[in-house]
What we know:
Layout: E1 4-7, E2 14-17, E3 23-27, H1 30-36, E4 41-47, E5 51-53, E6 58-61, E7 66-70, E8 77-82, E9 87-91, E10 102-107, H2 131-139
Parallel strand pairs: 3-10
Antiparallel strand pairs: 1-2, 2-5, 3-4, 4-9, 6-7, 7-8, 8-9
Amino acid sequence: MTGHTGGCQCGRIRYRADLPSDEAYLCHCRMCQRATGGFAAAFVQIDGARVTWDHEPDWYESSPIARRGFCSACGTPLAFMFKDGTGLDLTVGSFDDPSALVPILHAGAEGIHEAWLDTSGLPRHRSDEIQSVVSRWQAAGREVP
């Protein structure tokens, strides 16, 4: 697996990542939950030298040991990096096509919210089937992405 592209929601920050595999992971630690606003953060671990940024992300020190890359224009979380390392964790959701990535482990297991792990029994609705979403996109002159 190589040559994957991604970036932020507004398109200001773009990257190319030469991934050595399709392996990803979920981090459930409270830092990642707060940084992403989700029950977990989904990441791909990669050597920082294998990522080429068309526009470098903005960075903030999220703790005494790590920093996080994001877009200051749209707020998209893009990366996590230990300050003393060369590795980089890219957010799965920031890839243009994350469908080939497969979770292989849970990190930060002390923060797992079990009710959110297996949601396979919940009803599913496509965005283009939710009238309140469809009508808003139509009013904007666009189709549901």
